[in-house]
Design goal:
Helices cover 41% and strands 10% of the residues. The protein has helices spanning 34-44, 66-79, 98-106, 119-126, 130-143, 162-171, 197-213, 221-232, 279-284, 286-301, 308-311, 316-320, 334-354, 376-385, and strands spanning 5-9, 52-56, 86-90, 111-114, 148-154, 176-180, 247-250, 255-257, 271-272. Strands 6-5-4-3-2-1-7-8-9 form a nine-stranded mixed beta sheet.
C-alpha cells in the first residue's frame, strides 16, 4: 500500500487577526488565482499515483472568498479524481460565512482553527476580540455540520496556566492539539513568546497524565500521535517523519515549497507549478538538496538515539530556518521530544512486563487497579475503537 502525499495550497499570505507572535498582515497580500489552481491540477495529474490530501492553509485562506472555493474545489476534486483527493482547511474562522460553510460541508472538509484557552488567555496572546470572532465562526461551522478541531499555542507565559487551559478544553468538549510558540524570525525580541524546550517537555508529560486521567473525556491529538510513534516505531505526523518528497506547499503565485511554513521565503522556492516539475526535479533543486542534507545530518548525528526511527530529528523548518538555512543541528525541541518519548517508552515497557501471563503467579496484572491511572495501552485501545 502506497503512502498518501500532502499538498498545502496557500490562497493568501494575509491574515486579519495579526496575532502578536505571528506577525501576519492582510494588507497588500497576493491572492491565488483560479488559473493557478488549474496549473496545480495539471502539475499533480502525473506527479504521483497515490491518494492526495489537499489542505488550504495560510495566512488566512478564507480571505480568498466563497467564489474561489466554489470554483477551486470542483477543479481539484474532478481533475484529480484518480488520486481520490480529500480536503482540509486551517483557518481562524473570522471570515466564515454560511455560504462558505455550505460549500465546505458539501466536500466534508474538516477544519482546524486556533484557540489558546479561555478568552482572557487567548486575547492576551492574539489580540483583543480574537476569541469572540473565532467562536462566532465556530458556531457557524457547527451549525453546518463541520468538524472543527483547535490548535492551542502554548507560550512561555500561558504554560504557567496549563491547568486552566486544559480544563477549558475538557469542559467545552473540544479536541486539543498543542503547538509550542517558537522564537520569532521577524520580531525585535525573538524569545518574547517562545516556549523553552525543557518547559515543552514538562508540558507534554503533564498532558500525557491528563489524557490518561480523563480517558474517554477528551482527545489530546499530540499525545495520541506520540504514543502511536512509539508503539508502531514509525512517525505518524510530519514533525516525526521524513516528510521530504511527500509534502509540498504551493504559494499564492504558484511557487512550490517544502512545507507551508516556508511559503513567502524566496530562498526556499523549489520550483513553480507552471513548469510541471517532477519529484526528481524538486529533489534536485537547491532547496531539495538542503532538505536531504538535513536528513543525512539526522542519520549521522542521531544514529545512537533510540527514538531515531520515529523522530527523525523533528521538524526541518525548526532546525534550519533559525540558522539562515545552514544544517547545523536538529529541531531545537529535541530535548522535549526525548523527554516525552522516554516517558511513553518506559511506561509502555512497564505495562507490558506487568501484563505478562508468566507473572500471574507473582501478582502480575493485566490492567490498573481501581482508582489507579489507566496506562498507555488503555489509551491505544481507545484510539483503535474510535
Amino acid at each position: 500500500m502506497k503512502s498518501p502525499f500532502h499538498i498545502m495550497l496557500i490562497p493568501t499570505l494575509g491574515c486579519p487577526s495579526k496575532c502578536k507572535y505571528c506577525w501576519s498582515s492582510e494588507e497588500g497580500s497576493p491572492r491565488m488565482s483560479i488559473q493557478t489552481v488549474e496549473e496545480v491540477v495539471a502539475w499533480l495529474k502525473d506527479f504521483r499515483d497515490n491518494q492526495v490530501t489537499i489542505t488550504f492553509h495560510g495566512g488566512e485562506p478564507l480571505l480568498a472568498g466563497a467564489d474561489f472555493y466554489r470554483q477551486a474545489l470542483p477543479l481539484l476534486s474532478d481533475g484529480l479524481a484518480h488520486l481520490t483527493p480529500t480536503f482540509a482547511l486551517q483557518t481562524n474562522l473570522w471570515k466564515l460565512t454560511p455560504e462558505m460553510a455550505e460549500i465546505f460541508a458539501a466536500y466534508n472538509i474538516p477544519i482546524g482553527s486556533s484557540i489558546d484557552g479561555p478568552e482572557e488567555i487567548t486575547d492576551s496572546q492574539r489580540g483583543d476580540g480574537y476569541f469572540a470572532k473565532t467562536m462566532q465562526g465556530y458556531t457557524i461551522a457547527r451549525e453546518h455540520g463541520l468538524n472543527v478541531r483547535f490548535i492551542c499555542t502554548f507560550t512561555c507565559t500561558s504554560v504557567e496556566h496549563r491547568d486552566e487551559i486544559f480544563d477549558f478544553f475538557l469542559e467545552n468538549g473540544l479536541t486539543l492539539k498543542l503547538h509550542p510558540a517558537l522564537p520569532s524570525l521577524r520580531g525585535k525580541n525573538p524569545e518574547e513568546w517562545a516556549l523553552a524546550p525543557e518547559k515543552y517537555g514538562d508540558l507534554l508529560v503533564y498532558l500525557l497524565d491528563q489524557s490518561l486521567d480523563h480517558l474517554g473525556e477528551i482527545e489530546v491529538m499530540n499525545i495520541n500521535d506520540l504514543c502511536k510513534c512509539v508503539l508502531t516505531r514509525h512517525g505518524n505526523v510530519c514533525t516525526f517523519a521524513d516528510c521530504m518528497g511527500s509534502t509540498f506547499a504551493v504559494g499564492p503565485d504558484g511557487s512550490i515549497y517544502p512545507c507551508y511554513r516556508f511559503v513567502g521565503m524566496p530562498d526556499y522556492v523549489m520550483g513553480h507549478v507552471r513548469d510541471r516539475p517532477t519529484r526528481e526535479d524538486l529533489a534536485a533543486s537547491p532547496v531539495g538538496q538542503r532538505m536531504q542534507q538535513f536528513k543525512a545530518y539526522v542519520d549521522e548525528h542521531c544514529k545512537e538515539c533510540k527514538h531515531i526511527r520515529y523522530c527523525r530529528g523533528g521538524c526541518p523548518y525548526n532546525a534550519i530556518t533559525p540558522t539562515g538555512g545552514e544544517v547545523r543541528g536538529v529541531d531545537p525541541h529535541c530535548v522535549a521530544y526525548k523527554r516525552i518519548f522516554d516517558e511513553i517508552t518506559d511506561r509502555l515497557n512497564t505495562e507490558m512486563f506487568e501484563s505478562s501471563p508468566f507473572l500471574e503467579m507473582d501478582g502480575g496484572r493485566p490492567g490498573p487497579k481501581k482508582g489507579e491511572r489507566p496506562g498507555i495501552m488503555a489509551l491505544m485501545r481507545q484510539m483503535v475503537m474510535r
